[in-house]
């Protein structure tokens, strides 16, 4: 049963409970795959669209590390222009991309840190 987009009674510590979020990532990317986006366009898509998709889940539940790794893998693949089948060469380390712009990075948000910050509002 789903209420306000969140599953009721599901064990959110299990990775399979996060499948709707992963499917949203894939479906949102699928709609953009047909367009030819530059690196800057893919970066903006990553920062604006993909970073905001799991916010509601992240504000309510602790994300499992396995799910966070899957979502980061999807983000990396999107940024470098690859697909789930083909891989592209990563030109910049993800740790540098995930740094804030003030520290020399590209400003992509770290999902685990974002999850922790959103959960602190419940304290």
From TrEMBL:
Keywords, comma-separated and alphabetical: Membrane, Transmembrane, Transmembrane helix
Entry's transmembrane regions: 45-67
Domain of life, per lineage: Eukaryota
Name of the protein: Reverse transcriptase zinc-binding domain-containing protein
């Amino acid at each position: 049963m789903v209420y306000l987009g969140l599953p009721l009674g599901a064990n959110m510590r299990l990775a399979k409970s996060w499948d709707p979020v992963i499917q949203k990532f894939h479906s949102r990317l699928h709609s953009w795959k047909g367009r030819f986006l530059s690196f800057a366009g893919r970066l903006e898509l990553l920062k604006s669209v993909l970073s905001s998709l799991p916010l509601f889940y992240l504000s309510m539940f602790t994300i499992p590390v396995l799910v966070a790794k899957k979502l980061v893998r999807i983000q990396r693949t999107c940024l470098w222009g690859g697909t789930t089948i083909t891989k592209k060469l990563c030109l910049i380390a993800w740790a540098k991309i995930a740094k804030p712009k003030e520290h020399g990075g590209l400003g992509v948000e770290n999902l685990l840190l974002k999850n922790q910050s959103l959960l602190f509002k419940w304290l």
